[in-house]
Specification:
By secondary structure, the protein is mainly β. The protein has a single domain, classed as Hypothetical Protein Tm1070, Chain: A (Sandwich), CATH 2.60.290. The protein has no helices and eleven strands. The strands form three sheets. Strands 1, 2, 4, 9 and 11 form a five-stranded mixed β-sheet that branches. Strands 3-10-5-8 form a four-stranded antiparallel β-sheet, with no helix packed on it. A two-stranded antiparallel sheet has the order 6-7. Strand 6 and strand 7 form a beta hairpin. The radius of gyration is 15 Å and the shape is globular. The two termini are about 20 Å apart.
Length: about 120
Amino acid sequence: MATIAQTTIADKIGAFQVTETTLTASDTLVYAAGTNQRLTLRNPTAGSITVTIDGSGSTTITPNGYGQTLDVSAGYQVVLPAGVTKCVNLDKISAFLQGTVAVTGGTGAFATLVG
């Protein structure tokens, strides 16, 4: 299990290098709410990979105007077809990121975290 390394972009100008982490079956990331973090997931393999992002403290939420509770305990899934790269704005899925954040199912994929 590895922690996905974050590249801090606050002091960067123009193009800059990011740190890429090779994912295993179970990794972690440190989520900092309100910092505009982006998690990019890249699948260089010939098969589809489903990555699940799941905070240990994420259980249920009650969104305004919805009228009932939603279960977020299973995490947020990102399906990566063969050869595809996707980016996730972590602030937009913050309900899934409470507590220790695990990133699972990513064996064979790569991740970058910038914020």
